[in-house]
Fold this protein.
Amino acid sequence: MIPNKGTTMQWMNTRNRKANSALLFVFCLVVTPAFFVNLAVAAAQVEWEVKKAKKGVTVSTRKTASGYKEVKATVTANATIQDFLALLDNTAIASQWVDHCEKIELLAMPSEYERVVKTSFSAPWPVKDREMVTYSLTQVDEVNNIASIAISDASHNHPQTSEKIRMQGVKGKWTLITLDANSLSITYEGYGEPAGKMPKWLANRLVVTSTYKTFKNLRTTLEQTE
């Protein structure tokens, strides 16, 4: 039986759509990896811009696709890696050195080197108070006297129970390098979106001032608790 013209055209259109879909799928397989590699290269080429360098503390920022800036801070303190780790675990005094910090609560400790904490911030008027829930993993290289602490957002495992605005996309990394017997280089690189209705220009300004105060307080607190 010879198919009529309408049936033939319908079959040809269906075949063409399938062929086009297959070509598009192959195109995505070829192009997508290169696309993301190029994005990664472009991100790596974004240079840090020093925003504040005073009293031994340097704070820099760099642009991100979201418009919120990533922050980097460095300071050298008369302390050891263990001094710094002990300070992080002493959540009772966190408000003494973390700028605008109300409190830090330990929610879970899966292992000796893992922590899940909730940090509550009191924001300056008219900005609303914020909070973030983060997971951290500490790695210590005792041979080379260096350590790192990787931080990631853990909000998905801990539903919000307060009226504070929950920050989003939080990530960061502490890098600790022993310079000599009692001198420690401390570097932090981090990012987080404040959520809510905070203007990006204000968030980017606050992240510089708050990070600078935190690092200045960090050095003072470490050296006072020797």
